[in-house]
Structure formats: C-alpha cells, structure tokens
Amino acid sequence: MNLRSIDLNLLVVFDAVFQTGSTSIAARQIGMSQPAVSNALARFRSVIDDPLFVRHPLGVTPTEKARQMAPVIRQALSMLETAIEQETDYDFANSSSDFLLAMEEWSGVLLIPNLVQWLRDVAPGIRVNISEEKGKAAYDAMRKGTLDMFISYDRDVMPGDICSQSLFKDERVCLVRNNHSTIGRVLTLDEYLSLPHVALNQQIRGITGLSAFLDEKGWQRKIAMQVASYLSVPPVLIHTDFIATLPKQIALYLLEYYPLKIVELPFEVPPLVFSLRWHESKTKEARHAWMRKSIVALIRS
C-alpha cells in the first residue's frame, strides 16, 4: 500500500467513528456532515480493503482489522497533536474542552467537587467527565486516547509507556459503628482478625495492598461481605458489628454523614501513595499539561 494514497482526514474520521461507535456522533464531534464521514470511510475501506465497520441497531461495530489498527492510529494522531500543540500556550480561560478522568473513590468524593467548582471560576468552558475504568483497562484507554488520565494509589507495576506523578499519601484506619458491641477506642489484633469484615470486591478491584500485606504476615481476616465501592460500606456498618479498613480521608468524609467512628489499626501497614497517571504521548500537550498541573496544585493546596 502506498501511504501517499491515505489522506490524514481519513485517519481522523476513522478514529472518531471507532471511539464513538456512530457515524452521526463522529460527524458532530469533528465538525463534518454525516455524508462526508460516510464518504471518507468508503475511501478508507477501498485503501485498506476491509469493511472496517459493520452496522448494527445502535451504531457501528468495528471489524477485527479495525480493532487492530485503532490503537496505532490513535497514538499516531496523538503524537501529531502533541507535536503541533506542545509549543502553544493553552488558553484555558476561553477554551471549550472535555477531559475524561478515571479515579478511585477518594478522588471522586473529595477532589471532583472542588475541581468542578474551581473550573467554573477559571475555565467555565472546560468539563470533566468521570470513567470507571481501572488498572489495565485504564492504561489501554489512555494508549487509545479515549482516557486522559487516571488517579490511583500505587498497587501495581506501571507499564513503561505510562507516566506518573505522586500526589499525596494516606494511611489506613478501621471504621465501625459508634455503638459497636465490643470495640471501644482500642482494637486488638485478635479482634481485627476475628471480627467480620466488609471489604472491596477483589474480583472487581484486584488484590489490594492491604490483602497482600496481611498475606505476607500470615494473618487471615474474616471477610463476611464484599462491595464494589467504599461508599457502600457505611450502610452495612451502621446495622452490624462488621468492621472495615479504609483510607483515612475517606473515613473522615463518611463520619460527616453516618454514626461511625475511627479506630486505629493494631499494626503498622505501608501508606497508600496516590498518583496521577497519563500516557507518555500526552506529556508535552499543552492542554493536558495544564490540567495535570491544575489537579496537582488543587490537591496540594
């Protein structure tokens, strides 16, 4: 195939249709008419010699060939965007732009309300949207360019193409109801291991740092219930003698709304280190760099 036969606009159209799953939504996103998008796809199909997308009731589904090409094309377009934008100051005050962030509960509960309010004051045209992707799914989405950044605590080995900046550290604490039948102000190791726990679902979240730490010590806690989110923990605690281990900042937030109390853990465990992560292709993009700096400054303030 002769690369000179491929118009850059064909790659832009392909990328938009792949990301949205719809020719009409892609057309609105890139400022083209739907017939123009369809015509561009037809031209690209003839060059690639593949249907690329198959229609279905809710839009279009990519072929296997399209799935293989998509991350390469997304990365190439992202690199071109970076090369063009890296020397340009980002006019955030007058920008109209969307950012998609993935994050742990801490960020959603404590950072997002402050970030949204701050953006309304300094950059009212910028919107932040939240994704539920975690771990490998988040890394893959950042490579494709469908996810801008990921705020997480360090519990895994990051791929070499992912950049990271530490944000803050948080300790873990135990959370129980105020009138717990056996726990007062002090929790012993025997009590911690023998009492029923409500914990994050490890099939969803993976093995947590706390679980790995307890396994290394040879300690086995009794997990009586697993939940998908820290925000699902309080309703269980206030009606049972269950206990839960949470990041301290989340626990302090929950105390404002539920009759719960914090009890220190009966052992020392390494702190949670939260970090901001992004794909290396975005490092010098002015728009992306501005948002990263804004998040870091907001958290550290």
Number of domains: 3
Approximate strand percentage: 15-25%
User: What name does the CATH topology of the largest domain carry?
Assistant: D-Maltodextrin-Binding Protein, domain 2
The CATH superfamily of the largest domain appears as Periplasmic binding protein-like II
Order of neighbouring strands in the sheet with most strands = 4-3-5-12-6
* Structural class by sheet pairing and helices: alpha/beta
* Through-space gap between termini: 54 Å
Parts with pLDDT < 50 across at least 5 consecutive residues: none
- Highest-level CATH class of the largest domain: Alpha Beta
Judging by the overall fold, what is the CATH architecture of the largest domain?
3-Layer(aba) Sandwich
Please summarize the sheet with the most strands.
5 strands, mixed
